[in-house]
Amino acid sequence: xxxxxxxxxxxxxxxxxxxxxxxxxxxxxxxxxxxxxxxxxxxxxxxxxxxxxxxxxxxxxxxxxxxxxxxxxxxxxxxxxxxxxxxxxxxxxxxxxxxxxxxxxxxxxxxxxxxxxxxxxxxxxxxxxxxxxxxxxxxxxxxxxxxxxxxxxxxxxxxxxxxxxxxxxxxxxxxxxxxxxxxxxxxxxxxxxxxxxxxxxxxxxxxxxxxxxxxxxxxxxxxxxxxxxxxxxxxxxxxxxxxxxxxxxxxxxxxxxxxxxxxxxxxxxxxxxxxxxxxxxxxxxxxxxxxxxxxxxxxxxxxxxxxxxxxxxxxxxxxxxxxxxxxxxxxxxxxxxxxxxxxxxxxxxxxxxxxxxxxxxxxxxxxxxxxxxxxxxxxxxxxxxxxxxxxxxxxxxxxxxxxxxxxxxxxxxxxxxxxxxxxxxxxxxxxxxxxxxxxxxxxxxxxxxxxxxxxxxxxxxxxxxxxxxxxxxxxxxxxxxxxxxxxxxxxxxxxxxxxxxxxxxxxxxxxxxxxxxxxxxxxxxxxxxxxxxxxxxxxxxxxxxxxxxxxxxxxxxxxxxxxxxxxxxxxxxxxxxxxxxxxxxxxxxxxxxxxxxxxxxxxxxxxxxxxxxxxxxxxxxxx
Length: 623
What we know:
The protein is α/β, with parallel strands linked by helices. It has 22 helices and 22 strands. The strands form five sheets. A nine-stranded mixed β-sheet has the order 10-9-8-11-12-13-18-22-21, with helices on both faces.
């Protein structure tokens, strides 16, 4: 009955507990008198026995110690048993005090019996519950899959992860070892399991058939993590990770929270150290506008800016659903802050002018843009009207209303552009840069590559394709890209914005470029699938406007360092605002008329290094 899916009746648990109490009393007497109870103690025993049973039964009923589901006994259940039994024993002690001081100076219950009975009863009741729990786990599902596990981290998260695995009824986990970098822990045991130096992981994987390695450590060297994951993938071992304790549900870790490690975790780099004091001085008490606020970069910028307590934060986007979701998030997490959610199109000069007039912003972070390369290659006029004209409207309003700083979010695709999207962002850079003078506003541009997990990023696409069984589509075997996490990119934007004096194009250290096909293969392995067997990779050819290798600097540019090792300043040629303004006016007029071919021709005149690739506009280069 204990091992079926049905819960054991409470009355049966109650009777078993009473039986345990009966046995405990008898055993306490036998132990107290060396298994030879004197006649003088036997005479009052029936009365004592009856009183103990009545008091214990009453305490069980009051505390409802029998009401828990035995097979799910936890530490709190065991504590409840101890408290309940102690309460009964305390009643015995009080009765003794009454009989001693008010009735004939004798102890109704021998104090030694009270102590021995307390210890035996607690131990027996808890043991009964644990035996039932273990038996249920072992016998309820004899067909359970057996999986060998190694946990990296012998701290609190590691112990909790082990206990979560013990409770999982669908799979029988056997913990082979804990790994830990702390020399003081190595060669010791934790809950009966050996703690081993991480250098022995390869030996463990060779000796045992390990199914999973669980990373239960939060501060993990990025390079070390990548090496560990690569080693596990070589042995076809799944790598899981335990989330930070602050994300545990009600302070407790659940089995469903132990997730497969994501590719984003492996592409992360060392933590960025910012000059918080300078950024705080820049942002605290200021009115700040973020355009494209519902997007990946804009929303993360908003989250990071909030901790610096701006006077007003104005979040602007035209995407209604995304703005609604962002407002729900901020309403829940930042209730004490002054945040406005403004549904607006940056191409609407009248609407944007009204916003500037009403709120008089101090700083603008301009993240709104069309960014999908193939889509913009088919819609050049739209790229110009948003990426160029939208930027021009905001920049002109910034001058008119005395904005102190204008920080534009650009892209590495603006360097030697091969696409309409990249060229449109380069023209926007040129216009913003040409407006900069010694006074205000100070126009600053930040330029970086792909961000992990952003809208339209290749990683969500690959993940979706893997979940559907493939194939995973890659444009070219040799295509490479730079990657940066969204929080990392936004942190560097804040740092660059605070240090900028105006006119600079800041570029970020993106690390090493990554071959997209290698990224796809790694994501397939992390998903527990085998390339060529469970899923395929298919090459579909470069998309319109796409190039094999991204660049961060124009070939004619060089860089100068800043105080931050991850931020450089690109030295670029300056443009005359009068000349560039006339050309952009003509470009926008062409875009407004929908003459796509003439729009691209004019873009190439403004940006001579713009050479189309895999595009219908290549003919314009040949002419």
